[in-house]
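Box 3.1 A note on notation
Throughout this textbook, protein chains are presented in two layers. The first layer is the amino acid sequence; the second is a token string describing backbone geometry. Keep the layers aligned when reading.
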Amino acid sequence: MNKVLLLGRLTAKPELRYTQQNTAFTRFSVAVNRNFTNSDGKRDADFINVVAWRRQAETISKYFDKGNLIAIEGRLQTGSYDDKDGNKRYTVDVALDNFEFVESKSAKALSSSESSVYEPTPYDYQNSDSQSEINVENDPFAEFGDSVSIDDNFLE
């Protein structure tokens, strides 16, 4: 079995390219944080190369940018080539089978230090009317202690 699952951030804007047969593809790198900290107390990251083909390559290059969070399902693919000096070089890439958008553009804007204005989009699933209907007295989790914040800051 050859299966790879990744959750990470793009290290650069994916660039759409075409083969001689006019098949779309893109190569990009994803920074994936390790589950443990180093001796300095910081998380190291692995930079994993990914290749996407055809429609998926077009979609990724159109909608993803540097720093965007992406979920990837694929398989390891090895290859080799001769460099300009005649030395044989070996490559390992993740060949993308499926991917998912993990955060909305507005969520990315909120977490970015460059943006100070929040502009909701149709993809935001916040309905102020439904929030007013919550009955706190019937909350089955009220006795469990403090609230829990769910965000991706733990990745940093």
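Helices lie at 54-63, 105-111, 128-131. Confidence is low (pLDDT under 50) at residues 110-136.
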